[in-house]
Specification:
Blueprint: H1 8-17, H2 19-22, E1 29-31, H3 33-43, E2 49-51, H4 58-61, E3 66-70, H5 87-102, E4 109-110, H6 116-120, H7 129-136, E5 143-147, E6 152-155, H8 162-168, H9 171-189, E7 195-199, H10 214-228, E8 232-237, H11 245-248, E9 253-256, H12 259-270, E10 275-279, E11 285-288, H13 305-321
Parallel strand pairs: 1-3, 2-3, 4-11, 6-9, 7-8, 7-9
Antiparallel strand pairs: 5-6, 5-10, 10-11
Helix pairs in contact: 9-10
Length: about 325
């Protein structure tokens, strides 16, 4: 479902409309079926919405209608105007999706964007999807990857303030995240010997200590430990020269020290094609790499491209795991 006041509903409708052309595997929504029907009519999308009682009914229904496990909202939500009354249903839809995936009744979980502020106001105790999904599966170690055909980035720290990301950076976290990234590239992306480019924290990767000592003291030892474990890791590299086209040919994923170090180049290169992948979960989870876009919600301007990319990648990873 995602945030019902955002663009999640309309990109879901758009993805179903494009399913045959994009060769998408059948999917179903956990959402308010009446909301999606109303939204389809308002936007002139002519998407038939069909309620299903169980995920197993989705495949047969999918060619003729968008299958929906109907979970009614407590009241109508206006596009662009988040309402905290929807928070329990938003959270519950994530929990239900995880339960279905873990039970083998769904091949993957693809989440639409949430509005963190609305959830926080209702007592949600997690910084975002990634941390919540980890908690739902017993606090397994996870990492966030943003993937597109042009670039993959994996983040050592995610939803924390920059000053806290720097203060909390340590060799063990870099090694653990790099190891998980290499394992996931092999299992989920079919890369036999993954190559990691490890970004330095400081400009010019510290310039031999003249621009910060963290790269020599924290990042370089992590790269050495990754290499000692048999992982093809290179770095720490100057972050400003890692992401041009020629440099990207030399690695399969960039290991980035903090959120914006990875997301700025990814979104600049391929905003519509970027997919959020949670590494380390016992099930497949992807998400569009964009937010709720309240400013255009309900207008029909939202592109389903990122959701389509997330659905495609989820299907590819699920097939490899199978």
């Amino acid at each position: 479902m995602g945030e019902p006041a955002g663009i999640g509903g309309e990109v879901t409708l758009g993805a179903w409309r494009a399913a045959a052309h994009e060769h998408l595997a059948p999917f179903f929504a956990i959402d308010d079926a009446d909301r999606l029907t109303s939204l389809s009519a308002k936007l002139g999308l002519a998407v038939p919405v069909a309620r299903i009682e169980a995920p197993e009914a989705a495949a047969a229904m999918f060619p003729s209608a968008l299958p929906v496990l109907h979970r009614p909202l407590p009241r109508a939500i206006a596009p662009g105007h988040p309402d905290r009354s929807a928070a329990p249903l938003v959270i519950g839809s994530i929990q239900e999706a995880v339960e279905l995936a873990r039970a083998g009744r769904a091949g993957a979980v693809v989440t639409n964007p949430i509005n963190k502020k609305a959830l926080y106001d209702s007592g949600f105790a997690f910084p975002g999807h990634t941390e919540f999904l980890a908690a739902l599966t017993g606090d397994v170690r996870v990492a966030m990857m943003l993937a597109s055909p042009l670039l993959r980035v994996v983040l050592v720290s995610v939803h924390v303030a920059l000053k806290d990301a720097i203060a909390g950076l340590n060799t063990d976290e870099i090694v653990a995240t790099g190891t998980l990234a290499a394992q996931s590239l092999a299992r989920d992306f079919g890369i036999a010997r993954p190559r990691l480019a490890v970004a330095g924290l400081n400009p010019h990767a510290g310039e031999e200590g003249s621009m910060g000592e963290e790269d020599a003291r924290i990042v370089a030892p992590a790269v050495a430990l990754l290499r000692a474990a048999g992982i093809d890791a290179l770095g720490p590299l100057p972050p400003d020269t890692m992401f041009h086209a020629e440099a990207r040919q030399g690695y399969d994923a960039a290991l980035c020290m903090y959120h914006d170090q990875g997301l700025i180049p990814l979104k600049t290169l391929d905003f519509a094609g970027g997919v959020n992948v949670t590494l380390g979960l016992p099930f497949v989870r992807t998400s569009p790499d964009h937010g709720t876009a309240f400013d255009i919600a309900g207008t029909g301007k939202a592109s389903p491209a990122s959701l389509i990319a997330a659905l495609k990648l989820a299907g590819e990873i699920a097939a490899r795991r199978a």
